[in-house]
Amino acid sequence: MEPINLVSSPGPVCVQSSLAGLxxxxxxxxxxxESSAAPATRAQEGEREQGFKPDPGGxxxxxxELLLIEAYAAIWVVAFGLILHTWRKQRQLTARLDQLxxxxxxxxxxxxxxxxx
Amino acid sequence: xxxxxxxxxxxALLVVGVACLVVSLQxxxxxxxxxxxxxxxxxxxxFHVPAAYGMxxxxxxxxxxxxxxxxxxxLGWDAFARAGADVxxxxxxxxxxxxxLWASKSWGKxxxxxxxxxxxxxxxxxxxxxxxxxxxxxxxxxxxxxxxALGVLSVALVPMIHLSVHxxxxxxxxxxxxxxxxxxxxxxxxxxALGFVTFTLLTILWVWQRMxxxxxxxxxxxxxxEALELGVAGx
Lengths: 117, 235
Description:
A: 117 residues, 71% helix, disordered N terminus, B: 235 residues, mainly alpha
């Protein structure tokens, strides 16, 4: 790769280009003794950039307070969930009981009418 | 016990249970000290362990109810077994949610294939299966007997969960069991003791409430069937 000509790069953009050029020029002009291993190193760097790796001390970054609140909130959600489920079942049972009562009343009325008739 | 006396006893137990819960929360958050190595997240322990104990109680109730139903064949025992399974599921969910939240801080991960964790998950899934079976298979004699057999067999997982940490090791801490590190502060011990009392009362209340519901449902279904046979009920 050709190094950027610092002199022929006018204007503000040239500062960034120049810095990049310096880095690239350094790589090109003065190859390191490990230059034979450079493609492998670059491949490793590429992998590191594209893959996700956990931080071994990551657990320390989590808030203990938040986890505690989440745990207790979950316990309450489960507790109230069971209470809500019981309440819904009782409501369904009451509705079915009301229906059965209506059916029995209707049947009794019909029986009365038939006995009168 | 008459219905009125039973209602009064239930309300009295509910009042005591709520009072215990309030005192328990006060001791856990305002009195018990913060643990030295784990920090504040250790306070999950005061409800996590009693919830696991509640799951054991629920499973034991399901077992007792199942044995009662298989030997006596009455709907009351069946309702008792169903109530126990319901409570085992609720308590098991509490354990399986609160545990990983603690583990994420302590172990750096939410889940590990640890013997105690696997046994607890299996226990929860078994009682969930029991609940699904009862919810979607109707309430025939055959279903009740099959569920009772399941209730008897499922309880085998309870001692397995308890002994797993001693027999097969794993990462799960054994703070209060044999060979564990123990609790080194009286307020920590008090918080845990109150947690156990609260969850025992909660288990009794839930089993009672669910049993009454299942019993009422069974009696109603029998009555409805009778009404249908007599041509009283429309559909």
